[in-house]
UniProtKB/TrEMBL annotation, chain B:
Domain NADH:quinone oxidoreductase/Mrp antiporter transmembrane, residue spans: 129-421
Pfam family, any one: Proton_antipo_M
Annotated localization: Cell membrane; Membrane
Keyword Transmembrane helix annotated: yes
Membrane-topology annotation of the record: Multi-pass membrane protein
Superkingdom of the organism of origin: Bacteria
Transmembrane is among the record's keywords: yes
Family: Belongs to the CPA3 antiporters (TC 2.A.63) subunit D family.
Name of protein: Na+/H+ antiporter subunit D
UniProt source species: Streptomonospora mangrovi
Length: 970, 508
């Protein structure tokens, strides 16, 4: 949406934004457009501007809320109101089949574009998203208190959410749909976690996000696959001309449905929705009743005309939808918290909507639109009612509420009507929708899903409706009835403005129920694209004495019985074995991920430099090395002929030099003392210089001799500060493996060099240098290469040397001024203390997580995820364990010095001053920085996999590390 | 010699020399450093404009024609990466200057500025090198500067980390040099275009050996699994600005080298299977590492490793769309990583450390900081509409378009990685940013507000904000960016334009 703003603005800045702002008061310009251009199929749309308006309004909201208090929510309600008014003004054209479209280019090369298309389905959704949204913003102004924490942020994010949701339901591009979809996930994360000081809110928010964003990612892949199969990422194009089947198309559909089911809380992904009820009630009413959770329903309904014929699609949608409807209804029956009752009721209704939306017949389509609207209005009204009850009495627990019906009659009547709509009683819109839904599955009335399937579905729907009736009755009774066993609580009368919102929403329920003809065109407009049944179906209160009507009678009777015998029902529920809990699955997943992560990281991140180098060599042998060997074995790499091209030496002296090199190499490796090793190393270097001499490059040899001499001298100075012997050397298997690895690497390089040189086809460019030497003005080839042909390289190498010099100088000078490294004793002590404090804090945290999780029942409705709590605590604990192992990790690094100080060339100059052998007081345990009598450590070798406990090596907080934390420079 | 091509590495070297001479005049030195980078930014922008249509600009150093002399080449890929990198370099430098003004760092600016400019030269030269040995020199300049930078404000931990970093880097350099020797042995040339031509007639198996060897060489520096371990042990320990620039650029230069070598030199050979397997391992191992970290910097370093896997994945898919995806991902990742590390630096300033265990309620402590973290973090996780989403979509499209079970496996790994990235990031958010702030955090904040550092701190925050805006701008400009990326990818897939530009049109 942000992109819409930014993208839209440059193309047509003024004319798009200005009219949109004006609409707050003036008659909708959209309507004018529609009337001025009735003949055009695509009405130029203000939609991108309206979307932008959401973002524009969100920015100044935080400061405004700070100044004006909750009243600023009225301003926040302007964008949704504009959107709703605009949509209603467009309605006549849209239901007549003229979809409104607009387009803002984004990344056409990738198929990502902000294309919008508003048809009947979108219109129905806009009514929910923006219409109900505007009402809820008004309600917010009364619900929240002045100066509440984070209120400005809440308002801004809520407006952004509203815009994102509007985008979801209006876009015509798969990627844009995903963009808005994930924006709703993220804004919902922030909204659910609004009260971020509660551990529970943080966890619920994360849970909701992981579920919806995780399934959203699957959906994205599904979209890419669909779009790839169709060659187009436009949704309308995809539905109008669905790609041919094939296994990947099936996979794509399953992935897309996974996204839809995650968002719309279908079993078994429904657990996040009740958890998300920690959000403030208006947020729940908006996100978790009216808007966000409908996203999945919308997507299913949107794609149904194109894909409902696929068997897999139909059975997935019908199966999961029905299961969700039943599970949700069953669990709603046993909630004590009114909000949770509604949450499970929402789960149930979402299942209902998904199966209607996915069924793919005209009657089901009509029913879907009717139920969509019905659910949006009654459920948000009920949520707002609970919000008022909670706000005025301080509780929403059925077992603590009594007598509210007498004290808030208006609210009670409104809520009862809304609940009646939920239960499917005439003359409310819920009844109209449910009649249509039952009609859709009367066997024989519609082509799909076949007579047997229809019978099963119909039975399921009736069962679901009975549960719905029962929990609706329980809600009304629980919220408003006089209960003799409960004593009345203190109570503040709600203001009229506060009650107005649920009353208004209920009025719409009633209005649409009494005049279903208002919603019928919309429903027909959507169902138009679906395969027709045997006869047209229109929304109406009265269809005559039909099977659905009789079934409704049955539902009412059975539901009423269930309510009257609620004790028996609840006993039955308690006796039922507990089902595997989906939330438990989530915790298992999280726990699994963290333990895998921990063990993987422990195994890979050993912290030992020799191991690292060993792995690098092993990788080299495994990739190019194995390839070379395989090529030689299969004969694909030709071995150069022995005759002619192959000669052992050019001069017998080479043999002598080679012997020197080999012997000194072996001796160096075997040497335990540093100084002799250094001398041997320099002898080796001189040997190589000898090779250069023999090949006629005395200047190269001279350079090498100089370098070797200098290096040796410098290293001798460094050695003064290092212990006389290498402290840690590989042993046993480790040693053998090291030797093997190094020998193999050397063999590989030598072999490769030989084979490559022998396989050369073209003359080397060095011949070109010889020819052009005159031009370069010199006769020493090496000189002119360095100083002319490749002068740039020489310059670069000089820069390298100069940089190294500056680097060393800065380190050495620093050290001399005693500004480095060796922390004074006091500071180290502080560090150790700090460490102790940290791990104590971490343990405390783990405990508190466990405690919070154990205290979960507050919202965990009695069957708290005790196992989940364990998992969560386990996660915390694992992290603690991981970090507690932190300080030990230093050991591996410090061992690096032993190696670096040896054959590492000039490098010890850097390592030297730092890794000095000075003993440190109060050293952390396991820090092997003192290279003194440290025992040989098997963990130091690349071979040994049975290391001492490797750790994920989290660096401990290092007081020295906080730039500026201790007032900057020392 | 085309000056446009020389400026990116010559001017920073001159600037470095000047900055070193001016080390006693802090302000002048900082001014010189900023001016130098500003010139580079302007120059690379011009380069990008000149090459965006697919033109390949070349310049022969010392006017020795290729393959005798050294060729400097700018194709759309190099120019795009140069342009983005130079902006990031400039912003990070300004951030550093802000930190120095505030006296908030122990780094010595007099050393920092010259070496930072040398690093810049190395990065630019690596992108522009049209010659294998010159690429090595570019790497060496960059790495030597990085050895110096990683020990800025030395502590015991930093020197230790620098040991691992330096030794591993030197190992990769030695292998690089060996590889050059092998290439010269086989082809008798080091000019990239010339190698590409001559490798055509070389035995296929030997070519393959070289391709794999160079994958290992550059793989070490780009931290692909199983050669990644050095990165999380060294980057996070350096001071913020250094970690930021290392995380943003150094690994990406190496990825660029992988792309360049595997497409131009070894494009005929198919090492997709290896690349895809490596990509899967890199994505998963990296993100698993990120999930269990306590230190935010370390967490981000593991995430960095993980997301290198996405780029290798694109290279393994090996189609124009995939390479375009890689290019977009590179650009996205450079900015987002720099951004996250800069934010981590700000967090350290505010809180005094970067350990999640003792961090709560950062949103309360500083809402702006929260926003600065939230946007790039979401971008990293690929949440739309930010740049990470665009990059990921491009890669996913390419993957689906190519198909095959290994590609789908890698795609699945990519999806899992995205989800786990999200989990890792929101773990940071839920633990560090939400909740009741710890009393010492509030105190630290108050102290900071009253202290004399405020100006510098504000400047750092502004620069971080600039980087955030840059990241968002990349998402907004996804259209033009993807155009350039596709042009670059076409150029990579079909190396003839590059080769002709370097060697002349009659070579093939």
């Amino acid at each position: 949406m942000r992109a819409a703003t930014l993208e839209g603005t440059p193309s047509r800045p003024a004319d798009l934004l200005r009219p949109a702002r004006r609409t707050g008061t003036a008659p909708p310009p959209g309507g004018r457009c529609a009337s001025v251009l009735p003949m055009m199929i695509d009405v130029p749309m203000l939609l991108p501007a309206i979307l932008a308006l959401h973002a524009v309004v969100a920015v100044p909201l935080p400061p405004l809320v700070r100044r004006l208090g909750p009243r600023a929510f009225l301003l926040a309600g302007v964008p949704p109101a504009v959107s709703a008014v605009w949509a209603l003004a467009q309605a006549p054209a849209i239901v007549a089949g003229r979809a409104a479209t607009a387009e803002v280019a984004w990344a056409p090369a990738l198929g990502i574009g902000l294309n919008f298309r508003v048809d009947a389905l979108s219109l129905a959704m806009i009514v929910l998203v923006s219409g109900i949204g505007a009402v809820i913003f008004c309600y917010c102004a009364a619900y929240f208190h002045h100066g509440e924490r984070g209120l400005g942020r809440l308002a801004a994010v809520l407006v952004l959410f509203s815009g994102a949701m509007l985008g979801v339901v209006t876009t015509d591009n798969l990627f844009a749909l995903y963009v808005f979809w994930e924006l709703t996930s993220v804004t919902s994360f922030l909204l659910v976690g609004h009260d971020d000081r509660k551990e529970q809110a943080r966890r619920a928010a994360t849970q909701a996000l992981v579920t919806t964003a995780g399934t959203g990612l699957l959906m994205l892949i599904g979209f890419v696959m669909l779009g790839h199969a169709a060659g187009d990422y436009s949704i309308s194009g995809l539905v109008a001309d669905p790609p041919d089947g094939g296994p990947w198309l099936t996979v794509a559909l399953v992935l897309v449905l996974a996204g839809a089911f995650g968002k719309s809380a279908q079993v078994p992904l429904h657990f996040w929705l009740p958890g998300a009820m920690v959000a403030p009630t208006p947020v729940s009413a908006y996100l978790h009743a009216a808007a966000m959770v409908k996203g999945g329903v919308y997507l299913v309904a949107r794609l149904a005309p194109g894909f409902a014929d696929a068997d897999l699609w139909r059975w997935l949608v019908l199966g999961f939808g029905l299961a969700t409807m039943l599970v949700g209804g069953w669990r709603a029956l046993r909630q004590d918290d009114l909000k949770l009752l509604l949450a499970y009721g929402t789960v149930s209704q979402l299942g209902f909507l998904v199966l209607l939306g996915g069924a793919g017949t005209q009657v089901a389509g009509v029913a879907m639109i009717a139920m969509l609207l019905a659910h949006g209005f009654f459920k948000s009204a009920l949520f707002l009612t609970v919000g008022i009850i909670d706000h005025q009495t301080g509780t929403r627990s059925i077992s603590r509420l009594t007598g509210l019906g007498r004290r808030m009659p208006v609210l009670a009547v409104a809520a009862t009507l809304a609940a009646a709509s939920m239960a499917g009683l005439p003359p409310l819109v819920g009844f109209v929708g449910k009649e249509a839904a039952l009609e859709a599955f009367v066997p024989g009335a519609a082509p799909a899903p076949g007579p047997e399937g229809s019978a099963v579905m119909l039975t399921g729907l009736v069962l679901g409706s009975i549960l719905t009736f029962a929990y609706s009755a329980r809600f009304v009774w629980g919220a408003f009835a006089d209960k003799s066993t409960v004593s009345e609580r203190g109570f503040r009368r709600p203001s009229a403005a506060f009650v107005a919102a649920p009353v208004a929403l209920t009025a719409v329920s009633l209005g649409l129920g009494l005049a279903p003809a208002l919603a019928d065109p919309l429903a027909q407009g959507y169902a138009h694209d679906l395969p027709a049944g045997h006869h047209a179906y229109h929304l109406s209160l009265w269809h005559g004495i039909t099977l659905p009507l009789l079934l409704t009678g049955l539902v009412i009777a059975a539901g009423a019985l269930m309510f009257v015998r609620r004790r028996a029902v609840s006993r039955l529920q308690n006796r039922m074995p507990r089902w595997p809990d989906a939330e438990y699955g989530y915790h298992l997943f999280v726990h699994g991920v963290y333990s895998v992560a921990l063990s993987v990281t422990r195994r890979t991140q050993s912290g030992s430099l020799p191991v690292y180098l060993g792995i690098i060599l092993a990788t080299m042998l495994l990739l190019p090395g194995a390839r070379l060997a395989a090529g030689l074995i299969t004969g694909e790499i030709a071995v150069p002929g022995v005759q002619g091209a192959f000669r052992l030496w050019d001069s017998p002296l080479e043999l002598l030099v080679a012997a020197v090199v080999v012997v000194t190499t072996i001796a160096t490796v075997r040497e335990h003392r540093r100084f002799p090793a250094l001398i041997l190393l320099s002898v080796l270097g001189f040997g190589i210089a000898g090779l250069f001499v023999l090949h006629g490059a005395p200047d190269l040899a001279l350079t090498l001799v100089l370098v070797e001499t200098l290096t040796t001298i410098i290293l001798v100075f460094v050695l003064r500060r290092l212990p006389t012997t290498f402290s840690v050397r590989p042993n046993g298997w480790a040693k053998r493996l090291t030797v093997l690895l190094c020998a193999a690497a050397g063999t590989f390089i030598a072999l490769a060099l030989w084979l490559m040189t022998a396989a050369r086809t073209d003359a080397p460019i060095s011949q070109g240098y010889t020819e052009r030497a005159d031009e370069a003005g010199g006769d020493n080839l090496v000189n002119i290469i360095l100083a002319d042909f490749r002068a740039l390289d020489t310059l670069g190498e000089i820069v390298v040397l100069a940089t190294a010099a500056v680097a060393v100088a800065s380190l050495v000078l620093l050290n001399r001024r005693n500004r480095v490294v060796d922390e004074p004793a006091a500071e180290v002590a502080v560090e150790a203390e700090e460490e102790a404090r940290l791990s104590a804090a971490a343990e405390e945290h783990a405990d508190s997580v466990a405690a919070h999780a154990a205290a979960e029942p507050a919202l965990g409705q009695g069957q708290a995820p005790a196992r989940g709590a364990g998992a969560e605590a386990g996660e915390a604990e694992m992290t603690v364990r991981g970090t507690a192992a932190g300080p030990e990790g230093a050991g591996g690094e410090s061992r690096a010095e032993a190696v670096g100080g040896g054959p590492g060339g000039g490098e010890p100059a850097e390592g030297g001053p730092a890794g000095g052998p000075r003993p440190r007081p109060a050293d952390a345990p396991g820090d092997a920085a003192d290279p003194g009598p440290a025992p040989p450590d098997p963990g130091d070798t690349p071979a040994d996999s049975a290391d001492p406990p490797p750790d994920p090596r989290e660096t401990p907080a290092d007081p020295d590390d906080h730039e500026g934390s201790d007032d900057g420079r020392p | 010699m085309n000056a446009l091509l020389a400026i990116p590495f010559v001017v920073p070297l001159l600037g470095a020399a000047l900055a070193l001479l001016l080390r006693r005049h802090r302000r002048v030195q900082a001014g010189v450093a900023v001016a130098t980078l500003a010139v580079v930014v302007a120059d690379t922008a011009l380069l990008l404009a000149a090459t965006a249509d697919g033109t390949v600009l070349t310049s022969q150093a010392g006017d020795w024609e290729a393959p005798l002399g050294i060729t400097i080449v700018a194709d759309p890929l190099a120019a795009l990466l140069l342009a983005v990198s130079s902006v990031v370099l400039l912003v990070v430098q300004l951030y550093a200057i802000g930190q120095d003004i505030g006296g908030l760092s122990r780094a010595m600016p007099q050393v920092f500025h010259p070496i930072y400019l040398v690093l810049t030269a190395g990065v630019c030269l690596s992108f522009l090198a049209g010659d294998l040995f010159n690429l090595f020199v570019g790497f060496e300049i960059m790495l030597t500067a990085s050895y110096a930078l990683i020990t800025q404000a030395p502590t015991r931990a930093r020197v230790r980390a620098s040991m691992i970093y330096t030794v591993v880097s030197l190992t990769s350099s030695i292998l690089f040099l060996t590889g050059i020797a092998l290439v010269y042995g086989l082809t008798g040339t080091v000019n990239l275009a010339d190698i590409a031509v001559k490798l055509g007639s070389a035995p296929a198996e030997l070519r393959m050996v070289l391709a794999l060897l160079f994958l290992v060489v550059f793989g070490i520096k780009s931290a692909i699994v199983p050669m990644h371990f050095w990165l999380p042990d060294s980057y996070p320990v350096a001071i913020t600005r250094i970690s930021a620039i290392f995380a943003a650029l150094l690994t990406k230069v190496a990825v660029y080298a992988i792309i360049r070598s595997q497409t131009l030199l070894f494009g005929r050979d198919d090492i997709s299977t290896v690349l895809l397997c490596v990509a899967i391992a890199t994505m998963l191992v990296g993100i698993f590492g990120a999930l269990v970290q306590d230190d935010i910097n370390r967490l981000m370093s593991f995430a960095l490793v993980s997301h290198i896997g996405f780029m290798i994945f694109g290279l393994g898919v090996n189609s124009v769309a995939a390479l375009a995806g890689v290019v977009i991902y590179l650009v996205h990742h450079i900015v987002v990583q720099a951004n996250l590390f800069l934010v981590n630096g700000l967090i350290r300033q505010y809180v005094g450390h970067s350990s999640l265990r003792s961090m709560r309620g950062l949103t309360t402590v500083s809402p702006v900081l929260a926003l600065y973290f939230f946007l790039p973090a979401m971008s990293l996780a690929g949440i739309p509409p930010l740049s990470g989403f665009v990059a990921k979509v491009a890669l996913f499209q390419a993957g689906v378009g190519t198909g095959g079970w290994l590609v789908y496996t890698a795609l699945a790994a990519g999806v899992v990685t995205s989800l786990l990235t999200l989990m890792a990031i929101f773990r940071v958010w839920a633990r560090g940013f939400w909740g009741t702030p710890m009393p010492d955090m509030v105190e630290a904040r108050e102290r900071l507000k009253r202290g004399s550092h405020l100006g510098g701190l504000k400047f750092m925050a502004v620069m971080t904000g600039v980087m955030v805006v840059f990241g968002v701008a990349i998402a907004v400009c996804a259209g033009p960016l993807s155009e350039v990326a596709f042009t670059a990818a076409h150029g990579l897939m079909n190396g003839s334009a590059y080769i002709e530009a370097v060697l002349g049109s009659d070579t093939r």
